[in-house]
Design brief:
Keywords: Glutamine amidotransferase, Transferase. This protein is an alpha/beta fold. It is 34% helix and 26% strand. The protein has one domain (2-233): Rossmann fold (3-Layer(aba) Sandwich).
Amino acid sequence: MKVIIVKHIDIEGPGTIADFLDDNDVPCEVIDIFNGESLPNSLSGTSAVIILGGPMNVYEEDKYSFLKQEDEFLKEVIEEDLPTLGFCLGAQLIAKAKGTIIKKAPEKEIGWFKVSLNENGSNDPIFQGFPGEFDVFQWHGDTFDIPDGAVKLAESKLCTNQAFRIGNNVYGLQFHIEVTDEMIYQWMDSYRSEIDSLKGLVNPDQIISDTKIKSENYKAQARQFCLNFFKFLRPS
C-alpha cells in the first residue's frame, strides 16, 4: 500500500494529510513535479493519489509543461476510479481532466470562510461526522464547473462549486483541508504581493487571528476527513 502525493510548490505540502499517514504508518511518496520529479508510469501498487495546490493556473501549460503530464496522469487515475483527492489547484486539475473549463471566480476567496454541504454532501461518506456548515481555509482565484457525471457536494456564498465526487472514490475540494497553522503563516508571507494587490479586501491580521482561534477545531476536522477518505486503511 502506497499513497502518491503530487506537490506543485515547496510551501504547499501535504500538511495534515502527511501527519495522518505518518501516525498510521502508511507509506507515501511525495512527487515534487515542479522540480522535475516524474509521475509514476504505472498505478500498480498505488492505494491513493493526492493532488495538492499551487499558485499556477491549470491553463498555463505553456509556462508549466508538467501540467500536460499531470492531465494525462489524472485521466488514467479517474478511469481506474482510484481513491483520489485534489485540493484547490488539485481539484481544478481533476475537473479539467474530465473536460471541464476552469475560469476566474467572481471574487477571490482568501482566508477563513463557511462552506455548506448540500444533500449529496451530507450523505457522502467523505463528510461523515461533519456539520451541514463548517469553516474552511481558502486561497484561490479560479473556480471549476462540476464535471459531467460528477456529484456536487458543497458550496459557499462566494463560490458556488466547492466540492465534487467522480465515481465512487475521486474527490475535488476547492478548499484546503491539508493546511497547518505553519503553512498558513508561510503563505501569508510568500503570497503577500497578492494580498497587497487586493487593496484591503483581504485583512492578513484577521486571517492570523482567525487561524489561532480555529486551529484546534480545524485539526480535528482534518483528522475526521482523513479517517473518512482513508477508510480502506481500516478493516471492514
